[in-house]
Amino acid sequence: MAMQGIRSLLLLLALLGPWLVQPSSGQSRKYQQFLRQHVDPYSEGGDATYCNQMMHRRRMTVPKCKPVNTFIHEDIWNINSICHTTEIKCKNGKMNCHEGIMKVTDCRVTGGSTSPNCRYRVTAGTRHVVIACENLEPVHFDG
């Protein structure tokens, strides 16, 4: 009985996740999009089922399957703190990227997947990440 209650609570947190990390109206649209696409502090990620469900829930399977996406499993304060580290060059040549080490789940679409039933393979772990920031807010996952 207690195990079912824990599962229900975890499911509720997973469903509410995007709204629990939702920024205030004073924060930029790019930051809000970054949170929707990349932040999931209430999960450890893990398997392909996680990627398949999260990519669908976070609206990254329509109008086409997003080929690659990374979910960061850290609290928003840890993620925001990356923007206070030394600036480095982004892939696009701008000097507004920052780096850190985070727990992540990388989702890559499998061959033959079609929208909206996209299927993903997963790589999960702790690794080096690069994030672009504007006005001390993370706005783009660069790698």
UniProtKB/TrEMBL annotation:
**Function of the molecule:** Cleaves preferentially after uridine bases. Has antimicrobial activity against uropathogenic E.coli (UPEC). Probably contributes to urinary tract sterility.
Ordered alphabetically, the record's keywords are:
Antibiotic, Antimicrobial, Disulfide bond, Endonuclease, Hydrolase, Nuclease, Pyrrolidone carboxylic acid, Secreted, Signal
Entry keyword DNA-binding: no
A GO cellular-component term linked to this record: extracellular space
Task: Tell me where the signal peptide lies.
Answer: 1-26
GO MF annotations in UniProt: endonuclease activity; hydrolase activity; nucleic acid binding; RNA nuclease activity
In terms of domain of life, where is this protein from? Eukaryota
What is stated as this protein's family in its record? Belongs to the pancreatic ribonuclease family.
Q: What is its main location?
A: secreted
The identity of this protein, by name, is: Ribonuclease 4
Q: Where is the Ribonuclease A-domain domain?
A: 27-143
Q: Does the keyword Hydrolase apply?
A: yes
User: What SMART domains would the database entry show?
Assistant: RNAse_Pc (SM00092)
Q: Name one GO biological process term.
A: antibacterial humoral response
Which compartments does it reside in?
A: Secreted
Name the source organism.
Vombatus ursinus
Question: What Pfam families does this protein map onto?
Answer: RnaseA (PF00074)
